[in-house]
């Protein structure tokens, strides 16, 4: 992640590799962080809003994912150490 952009990378022996760049609002220094894709898909599949907030402290701490307009619902996802 860096100002204005998040690059998503996925690699699977069965499915191959994918790279996608997304526009985003981000404040802070450039950061590399890894998550299990299944956990992110599970979280995003139950959030009905178009936009979500991803709150990060550092690349080893938990991420909080919540709908942008609903502060009562949140999910915590731990990053992977690679």
What is the CATH H-level superfamily? DNA Polymerase III, subunit A, domain 2
Roughly what fraction of the amino acids lie in strands?
A: 35-45%
- What is the CATH architecture term? Roll
Largest sheet at a glance?
3 strands, antiparallel
Into how many domains do the coordinates divide? 1
Q: Find the CATH topology.
A: DNA Polymerase III, Chain A, domain 2
Q: Indicate the radius of gyration in whole angstroms.
A: 13 Å
Order of SSEs, N→C?
EEHEEE
Estimated structural class: mainly beta
Stretches with pLDDT under 50, minimum 5 residues: none
Structure description:
The longest helix has 10 residues, at 37-46. The protein is mainly beta. The chain is built from 1 helix and 5 strands, in the order ββαβββ. The model has no long low-confidence stretch (mean pLDDT 89). It has one helix at 37-46; strands at residues 5-12, 16-23, 52-56, 63-67, 75-77.
Keywords, please?
DNA Polymerase III, Chain A, domain 2; 1 helix; 82 residues; mainly beta; two-stranded antiparallel ribbon; 3-stranded antiparallel sheet
């Amino acid at each position: 992640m860096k100002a204005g952009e998040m690059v998503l990378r996925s690699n699977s022996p069965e499915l191959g590799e994918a790279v996608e760049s997304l526009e985003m609002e981000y404040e802070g220094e450039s950061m590399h962080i890894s998550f299990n894709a299944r956990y992110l898909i599970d979280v995003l599949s139950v959030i009905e809003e178009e936009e979500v907030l991803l709150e990060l402290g550092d690349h080893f701490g938990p991420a909080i994912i919540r709908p942008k307009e609903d502060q009562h619902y949140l999910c915590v996802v731990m990053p992977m150490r690679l």
